[in-house]
Design brief:
Elements lengths: L8 H8 L4 E2 L1 E6 L5 E6 L2 E6 L2 E8 L3 H9 L1 E6 L5 H7 L12 E4 L2 E4 L4 E13 L2 E13 L6 E3 L2 E3 L6 H5 L1
Antiparallel strand pairs: 1-11, 2-3, 2-6, 4-5, 5-10, 6-9, 7-8, 9-10, 11-12
Length: 169
């Protein structure tokens, strides 16, 4: 296989900023039973049969360390009005749950009023450059009528359908 030149990281980041991503807070329980979670936008549906999702976490992620031990995750799919919560959980320090309304659900921290909720069992951890891809089987899936929060071009927003005028131009 011929080695091909790789895109400069800055150019890759700029290109990826144009990709809309869902905004989730992935949660688990620590070994001492405390809730733990962080904002994750590298989240995707992977398979329908069996139902699976993937998340990508930095190798040094504290969340990844907790997931390696617990082997279970909760995926809180944030609603459009939860951008502040996404920002709060993106912090690296402090008690992230002190400002959140949440409860235990299937032994996982579940945030209130999200657009969706998944409980998952970790199936595999795969090396991916400076990240680890977590593959997880979905045990339960619930949704609400709230519109989802998305992230693109370094801004939060939500999805809106194109109107016929825009599509015909």
């Amino acid at each position: 296989m011929l080695a091909k030149p790789l895109a400069p990281p800055e150019e890759f980041l700029e290109a990826m900023a144009n990709v809309c991503t869902p905004v989730t807070i992935v949660t688990t329980a620590t070994t001492d039973g405390a809730p733990y979670g962080t904002t994750v936008s590298a989240f995707a549906s992977l398979s329908l049969d069996p139902p699976m999702v993937s998340i990508s976490l930095g190798r040094e992620s504290r969340l990844l360390a907790h997931i390696r031990r617990s082997e279970t995750i909760g995926v809180n799919i944030l609603a459009a009005n939860q951008a502040d919560l996404a920002t709060w959980f993106a912090r690296s320090q402090g008690d992230k749950f002190q400002e959140a309304v949440w409860a235990w659900d299937s032994q996982l921290p579940r945030l209130d009023q999200c657009a969706g909720w998944l409980t998952c069992t970790v199936n595999a951890l795969i090396d991916g450059g400076d990240h680890v891809v977590v593959l997880a089987c979905v045990n339960t899936a619930q949704t609400s009528s709230a519109p989802p929060l998305v992230y693109a071009r370094r801004k939060f927003g939500t999805h809106s359908a194109l109107n016929a005028q825009v599509c015909s131009d």
